[in-house]
Structure formats: C-alpha cells, structure tokens
Amino acid sequence: MVMPRPTDLILHRAARLLEVVFDDGTRYQLPAEYLRVNSPSAEVQGHGPGQKVLVAGKRDVGIVGIEPVGNYAVLLRFSDGHASGIYSWGTLYAMGRDHDHSWAEYLAALETAGLSR
Asked: Is the pLDDT reported for residue 50 higher than 90?
C-alpha cells in the first residue's frame, strides 16, 4: 500500500492546530499539544522499546515553526523550545488516524501518574 502524502499543511496558530490534508482526501486537525507529547524524537520516544517518556504540562504549547525535511517529513518547532522531532508523512497520517485512541491513553496515563496537562 502506498502511504498518502500531504497536499497541504495549515498552521492555525490561534487555535494551536496543525491541519494536514492528504492526497487520499483525508484531513486531520492535530492539536499542538498532541503533537508535542507524542513527538517522534528520542527525547520523548526513548532509544528503544518501552522507553517512552510521559510528557506533562503542555496544554498551552504552540507550534512556532514548520521546516521541511527532504520530501518525506517536517520538523516542528514548539513554543516550549522542543524542536528535535521529525514528523514523517506516515507519522502524521498515523497520528491523525489514531488520535482519539492515543489521546485517551495519554489522558489515562497522566491521571495514573498524578500529572496534569
């Protein structure tokens, strides 16, 4: 199966959303907080299985920059200084597709850990 590619990336700064439109007609509105706490960076994901870090306190984070990485990804710069995650087209598509489930898991993990957004 060929992975859909973005045809448009629209940053809605005031709403703190990144809207991604794919060539298969799919459109996702991804909150900056969701993108930040699930960053594909090693800082968040760790260097191996089971090492993902639970990132809290990012409710008000925004995206301050988007930089292309070749023809396959973007680097997102966040208002908290985080700028090391490379978001491939496949990662953005999966994050949009899985948003509801992933977000519910994140909120449950925060609650279990006694942390807040």
From this structure: no
